[in-house]
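The instructor's notes for this session suggest beginning with a concrete chain rather than abstract definitions. Hand out the sequence below and ask the class to guess, before any prediction is shown, which regions might be ordered.
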Amino acid sequence: MRMTKAKARRNPLGVTSVDVARVAGVSQSVVSRAFSLDPSVADATREKIFAVANQLGYRRNLLARSLITRRSNLFALVTGALTSTLHLQFIESLTRIAQQRSYRVLLFATPPGQSLDESLDTVLHYRPDGILAMAGTPSEKMVRDCQRSGVPIVLLGRNSEQTAASSVSCDNVAEATVLAELLLETRHRKFAFVASQNPALSFSLDRERGFSAAVTAALGDPPVIENGGSSYAGGYAAGQRLLVRRRRPDAIFCASDTMALGLMDVARREFGLEIPRDLSVVGFDDVPMAAWASYELTTVRQRVDTMVEIAADMLLDRKLHANKRAMARLVPGELVVRKSARLPQRIVAGVAAD
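After discussion, reveal the predicted structure:
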């Protein structure tokens, strides 16, 4: 036994299942079935194989095994900037939920200036069992390439109106409409919307669409639109431009919490406004900082776990991919009422009662 172990250590490829089979006195196929927990392998034989493998320091090569089974048990997540708090929440959720299903996650960050198609082309070389994309929108050609490769792709956190890929996202239009209606109910009359850095992003467009439609229907005029750069600094700068206007807004909806926090700070520091007495501010996403005592931002929480569960189900739905049929799922958000906006008493009272 000791000599076998010594020989295995000198093997440049490390200990293999053949080494385990030879020492355990069984065939290599029995070793493979034992590690796959195949019931055809007797318990005593399996225990002997595991003991030998442990003594030799054997670890299964799961990547090599995937070449045989054609299943890697890997999900690829393609994301944008890892500085996004919301993206980190999605990464944590997907990692946890994937492990519950015996999958692991490969993370690919799309650098600035690189298209999603370029990232996906790289991802396909790793042969994952499915791809979740949170950065950009794939071209029709890339969606077809994924289908031909047998690797399903689902857009996470954005809709798929511009592509044939399936998608799971928050119902941004509906939630933004609710925010506008609540602000209108408390007699706000001068509205503004702070959009994300890239106005073509579906989630920002949908939030703008829902908010603008409700405001325009009620008042006849759309809200003022500013670009907030998808950052705290961008929200701060957008606030500077909005709050010097002769017709200064009394209610501002930011497409993300991060921008809303910057806008709240400039409103108080540079303009001396009291929130929510002089200005109501609402955001979207419910990032951890939104709950800080210095902000207490009213916002919409995305149901991240629910969205990830649905997306994982889509990736594993072979019937869906066999039909090459795109599916779009919208998940309701959750209104989180804090103290940054004047809202109807019935809403505030309901939160206090809870």
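Then share the key points. The chain has three domains: 2-60, 69-170+304-331, 172-302+335-353. Residues 1-10 have pLDDT under 50 and may be disordered.
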